[in-house]
Amino acid sequence: MLPRKKIPPGVPFLARRLVVDLIPAAIILVASRLFDFIFHFKLPVVTVTAGVVLSVPTLYALHIKLYQWHVRRAAAHLGAVLPPRWKGRSIGDRDLLDHVLEHYNNGYLGEGIWDKMGELGYLYDVTIMWGTNYVTTDANVIKTILAMEFAEFEKGEEFRDAMGTVLGSGVFNADGDMWKFHRMMTRPYFYRDRISHFELFDRHAALLIKKMKDRFQGGHAVDFQDAIARFTLDSATEFLCGKCVDSLESDLPYAHNDAVAPNLVRKPNVAERFARAFTEAQLIIAMRSQLGWFWHFQELLRDKTAEPMQVVDQFLTPILEEAIRRNRASRVKGMASHVKDADEDETLLDHLVKLTNNSNVLHDEMLNILIASRDTTAATLTFAVYLMCLYPDVFKRLRAEVLERVGPTQVPTFDDVRSMKYLRAVINETLRLYPAVPFNVRVPNRDTTLPNPDPNGPRIFVPAQTPIGYSVFLMHRRKDYWGPDAEKFDPDRWLDERLNKYFTANPFIFVPFNAGPRICLGQQFAYNEMSFFLIRLLQNFSAMELDLSAQPLDARPPPEWASADGQKGKEKVIPKSHLTLYVYGGLWVKMTEAEKET
Ligand code: HEM
Question: Which of 29, 497, 577, 593 is 20 to 30 A from residue 307's alpha carbon, by CA?
Fold first, then answer.
């Protein structure tokens, strides 16, 4: 492994900025010297100083004017118009940043953006501190970005810069040839359903369910979000690397109000340290992307991800080195498979080391897929359990399907999973209302146009390098796409006439796994893992409920939410998002064991 960069990421950013910003000042200084040399006339110090000081704002003002002029001309040239703009009240529209951050920290998910859609339409410009961003929830625009004009829209340099210290050059963070290379390496592994995956899901599910039962028997609540994140972490590390981090081996946490909790001061073990560090690194990069280029100033002295990433790498590096050693040894013995397809029971790492022994490529690839697979799947299962607690009828109906198709104790098979229509409907409905990746961004690599959300309007111009934030979360709740009951949790919409009326007629209104060439590689794996776990859970428990008293005090929805329309008014927890969706403060539940049914 190459050592991680020691220079804080704010330093090169500032150095680049200073070089650009100081050019006019340097020109003024050199010009004043030349003036003196050629014409023997010394410009007054006050004049030169004023010129130097004013050069930076003048340069910026000129740059902005020139940019606006270019944008108007280029838009006219392409026969397009500019989108409506959300105008702020302060210099640089700084108040809009405050508004967005205030909602991000204290409001309901997506409100900061959604607020303005009624007034400005489903694609608008929010320029903050002279940096232009577009935001959209329009299915046609999202389809254009992700699929129709895929080659023109990238993750972009700004995203890569903010994510780089964690994601490196992995598949999530790459564009162009680098992305194609990663995708080409990884895709064959995901082609097939593997029996070995079901075996490992079963082992980890059994352990988790036993731990949950122990807690419920003692009358304690369980934070299902924490518990399921351990299940997905253990499953992912085992199927990816062949070595499980064993986070389920350590104790589950107790609720703040549990009599046991105050007496419990434990040192976190390796698995917990890994899981925490892994989450912390993701929180940091998520905050960077919220702050735009501003984040560099917060990291002038230190890279905030360095410490957590050290913990993550302590786990990952020996596993990678061991895999490379194993592969080399088997090559020497002439045993290595040079077949590019993945073998039935090999891990993703086994598959990748046959294609490259570059430890940095392997490191980034494994870490990216670990991030891609763990939190997304855990989030979806967390919200599925949350919704089943809110809607006991859905729980009952799903449990009846489980008992009818699989039975009370049998291990589910691929055929079981495929045949369970209501289970698929519950998962899809969860992904619709609570998509694990609720917000995302793409950047055009050249000046281009997008469809106008108003079908009669002209196309909308987008300057090169303008980040286009799109919200799947908000799009999945639009009444014009899903009908008047769009905000209602109703799995039947995937089974009755509404399926054809809405989704089949316009499939891009539902893209929890993204779409187009960059569609999620692990979609089938995720459906298998989530289905398997839910079947096991419902075989073992006959009822589930939220334990709201266990919810930390600051993690309860503010009382004023109760009078809001739609899902916001029904929330018993606070959904939040870093890169992925999560429940703030955890999802505290109690369940009744199936055997204990009266
Ligand atoms: C419910 C579970 C999951 C959801 C909702 C989900 C969603 C997504 C989304 C929205 C993206 C696109 C991100 C972007 O381009 O910005 C993505 C990409 C990806 N996902 Fe998933 N994912 C899930 C599970 C998994 C699992 C289990 C794996 C692997 C085992 C996985 C592997 C990947 C990979 C490798 C990519 C990158 C694809 C690329 O950029 O070409 N995902 N996923």
Answer: 577
Q: How confident is the model at residue 340 (pLDDT cuts 50, 70, 90)?
A: very low
Tokens of 14: 């500032």
Instruction: Give distance in angstroms: CA of 373 to centre of ligand 1.
Output: 7
Distances (CA, A) of 425 to 11, 393, 399: 49, 14, 13
Q: Is the pLDDT of residue 341 over 90?
A: no
Could you tell me the distance, in angstroms and rounded to a whole number, from the CA of residue 269 to the centre of ligand 1? 29
Q: Is residue 249 part of a domain?
A: yes
Chain center to CA of 524 = 18
What DSSP letter does each residue of 294-355 carry, written as one string?
GHHHHTSS--TTHHHHHHHHHHHHHHHHHHHHHHHHHHHTT-----SSPPTT--HHHHHHTT
Q: Which atom of ligand 1 is nearest to the CA of 379?
A: 1
263: number of Cβ within 10 Å: 8
Of the spans 79-93, 357-371, 428-442, which averages the highest pLDDT? Answer: 428-442
- Compute and round to an integer the Cα radius of gyration of the chain: 27
The residue ranges of DSSP E strands in 118-200, in sequence order, are 123-128, 131-136, 153-154
Decide if 57 is inside a domain. yes
Asked if 524 and 577 count as a contact pair (C-beta separation under 8 A), the reply is: no
Query: CA-CA distance, 359 to 348, in Å (whole number)?
Result: 14
Residue for token pair 């919220």:
290
- For residue 596, what pLDDT is reported? 54
CATH number, domain containing residue 555: 1.10.630.10
- Note whether residue 108 is domain-resident: no
pLDDT tens digits, residue range 500-554? Answer: 999 999 999 999 999 999 999 999 999 999 999 999 999 999 999 999 999 999 9
Q: Residue 520, annotated ligand binder?
A: yes
Only one residue has tokens 């929010």, namely 126
Contact, 120 vs 137, CB < 8 A? no
The answer to the question of residue 210 being in a domain is yes
What total number of domains does the chain contain? 2
369 and 249 belong to one structural domain: yes
Closest residue (by CA) to atom 27 of ligand 1? Answer: 373
- 369 CA → ligand 1 middle, Å: 8
Ligand 1 pocket by C-beta < 6 Å: which residues?
Answer: 171-172, 183, 369, 372-373, 376-377, 380, 436-437, 440, 512-514, 518, 520-522, 525-526
Same structural domain, 403 and 522: yes
Q: Which of 26, 51, 77 is the last residue of a domain?
A: 77
Domain boundary among 35, 61, 77: 77
377 pLDDT above the threshold of 70: yes
68 and 192 belong to one structural domain: no
Alpha-carbon gap, residue 536 to 261, rounded angstroms:
29
587 by DSSP, 3-state: which? coil
Parallel/antiparallel/unpaired status of strands 153-154 and 439-444: antiparallel
Do 429 and 290 share a structural domain? yes
Domain that holds residue 374: 180-437+512-596
